[in-house]
Amino acid sequence: MQLLNRDRSPLLPERHPTPDFFVCDIFDAAPKGDMASMEHPVFSLSTKPDLRVRRYENGDSYIEIKPSSDGLATVHDRDVLIYCISQLMVAINEEREVSQVVRFKAHDLLKATNRMTNGQGYEALKAAFERLAGTRISTNIVSGGLEEFETFGLIERAKVVRETREGRMQEVEVKLSDWVFSAIKQQEVLTLHRNYFRLRKPMERRIYEIARKHCGRQGEWRIGLQKLQLKCGSTSTSKEFRRLVRAIVLEDRLHQHIPDYSIDLTEDDMVVFKNRSSTLQEERTTCQGPRIRPETYSVAREAAPGWDIYLIEQEWRNWMASGPTDGLRDADQAFLGFCRRWYERKGTAT
Length: 350
Known about the structure:
Layout: E1 32-34, H1 35-39, E2 54-58, E3 61-66, H2 78-93, E4 101-105, H3 106-112, H4 119-134, E5 136-143, E6 146-153, E7 155-163, E8 169-176, H5 178-185, E9 189-191, H6 202-214, E10 220-224, H7 225-232, H8 238-255, E11 261-265, E12 270-275, H9 279-285, H10 294-303, H11 309-321, H12 331-346
Antiparallel strand pairs: 1-9, 2-3, 3-5, 4-8, 5-6, 7-8, 10-12, 11-12
């Protein structure tokens, strides 16, 4: 059995300790990920080329992920999408026009995502572009009695606009897929803790994403070990997956390195996440207005099935902030009414 090192942090070193997420005069940005790929195991946990075709079904709906000859896009390749999504969300919040084409300096992305900025870092970034463009997603969307088939890549293309004499990328242009860009336009994104980029293990990153999506601001959230393995996309045996999760649990008890949430594994194979209230507490302080009772969130999930309730809450609070609230008698009922109208307008989240 592997012994834990009580002195060595399980987090990667902070390679670029700067206070801002972006280098280009954007100081209020925060890493953001799209909710759809937090829900589904789109990215591979493997550090070797993963050439398996994956298919996940939920009732009549399914999602299929197909690799290219370079393999599936990995959890670490997702950093590119997080960086692009974060940039575009800043622009949207500042009411600037956005498009599917995002141009940035490669060095800025490497710094923002805590990667090495040497030749190895640039080569790894090029490989990430190839896997992201090559990975194809096929899905059927069932809505209103109609079934639509759709297939797309995670990004449509990536282009190096300028290189140095040594051949290192300087400016890069990425065109996001319709799927990712639609999530951005509809603000179906969630803020991630900055230490996400310091998590060493791909499975730690994936487990954090799942907790961020499903636990959110709740005090606690539970999931069975078998279901967690499906959501992670792990191909390990059940015994090996349990061992991997237990190792993460023990390290987290020592170092509390998993951002935002503690993690525990019970004797009956339930994985329990508890909110640490770090980044999420900071988000709460920006939410002005009446408090919502904890039990109201359960009713809200039934009113808007499939949607992230905390995303809808933020939209509700933004809407409330635009007008007077003196006549508000019951904040919980007002929020539930907003959730029902949201679901009537937008339907089931995909």
